[in-house]
């Protein structure tokens, strides 16, 4: 009978250890996900598209600043930003959310 009680206590400790590990994994996953979040809040301008810079002009602006621009595109429907996909001066890939009127960076993916 004492042996059965000992086995149950041992199994309980294993379950507690598993619960702690699961909680740790969940916490780390949440932190990792937040690292992928963006500084972009969803809006850039309310100006009409007739006042927006062209994507070619936007690309030239960022290349003058030392970026190697792969692509500039308008955001998804209803989005008031350009998305600039580039590599910075150090060769790090960046995705910038940019005001299409003045070229100001309003956010960056992954930050």
Q: Helices and strands in order, then pairings?
A:
Layout: H1 2-35, H2 55-64, E1 68-74, E2 82-87, E3 93-98, E4 105-108
Antiparallel strand pairs: 1-2, 2-3, 3-4
Description of the molecule:
The protein has 111 residues and is of the alpha+beta class. The protein contains 2 helices and 4 strands; from the N terminus they run H-H-E-E-E-E. It has a 4-stranded antiparallel beta sheet, with helices on one face. Strand 1 (68-74) and strand 2 form a beta hairpin. The termini are far apart. The model is unreliable at 22-36 (pLDDT under 50).
SSE-based structural type:
alpha+beta
Strand content: 15-25%
Query: How many strand units?
Result: 4
User: Into which percent range does the helicity of residues fall?
Assistant: 25-40%
Short description:
With 111 residues, the chain is of the alpha+beta class. It has two helices and four strands; from the N terminus they run H-H-E-E-E-E. Strand 3 and strand 4 (105-108) form a beta hairpin.
List the keywords.
21% strand; 2 helices; 111 residues; four-stranded antiparallel β-sheet; alpha+beta; elongated
